[in-house]
Amino acid sequence: MQIKKALITAAGADQRKLAMQTLVDSDGNRKTVLEILIEEARQAGIEEIGVVVHPGDLDVYAGMDSGDTRIHFIPQDKPLGYGYAVLCGAPFIGNDYFLHLVGDHMYVNQSNMPCAKHLTEVAKKNECSVSAVTPTRESLITSFGTIGGKRVHPTTDLYLIDKIIEKPTPTIAEQKLMIPGLRAGYYLCFFGMHVLAPTVMTYLDKNLKKAAGNSIGLSDALNELAQNEQYMALEKNDLRFDMGSRYGLLKAQLALALNGKDRDQVMSELLEYFMLKK
What we know:
The radius of gyration is 19 Å and the shape is globular. By secondary structure, the chain is α/β, with parallel strands linked by helices. The chain has one domain: Alpha-Beta Complex (Spore Coat Polysaccharide Biosynthesis Protein SpsA, Chain A). It has 10 helices and 13 strands.
């Protein structure tokens, strides 16, 4: 099993404003959000990258240097939701497994192995779809896709998914998404990074036809994936920042700085700032 393609969605109302925002990465280099995400994919061995963008934004990306990786900009012709954005990448994906990242999330690793690389290695080893998940307090799960399943023994971070519900209430989660061995009051929510089988496009296409012109999400298709083939979740304790949230870009920049080579300088300057504010 090879994973040589990645699909990044960046066409949403908030995403399209964020992809070309400039941050300073952990090495101290100025890069756009999209460049940082592409670098994450490259570190996982990805050769071709599809970026789903708003049709009116194609000129924004025209001068972007793809380096040694082929990058394809794919217009999302209709605003029919996250699931449709992924489906727009179907011709590019073809019959291949693919890495999927969302364009408004920033991932900051807490270990020596980048999250995308870890995810792709687990997917290749188990020859199935794998989604990154993170333990999340029940008060926050109404903002995330949440999984139910069971731990794969003897591992401590791998789960077999049997159910997915998008933004469940705590009551629904307690009834349907409890995972034995997980800390009380916590559930496993999507981290915003997946390795998916190409069959997910079939489920998305079916859901689009049933939606009769309405928007579709991704979680329903992923739930169908879990019902029909082996689908795993990898628990990650790395940092994830929704840059579309209030202060999201600021928090992502601080995390990159404090996990990078300029940490001491940044800490010193922050301390000096807070001392001056007293």
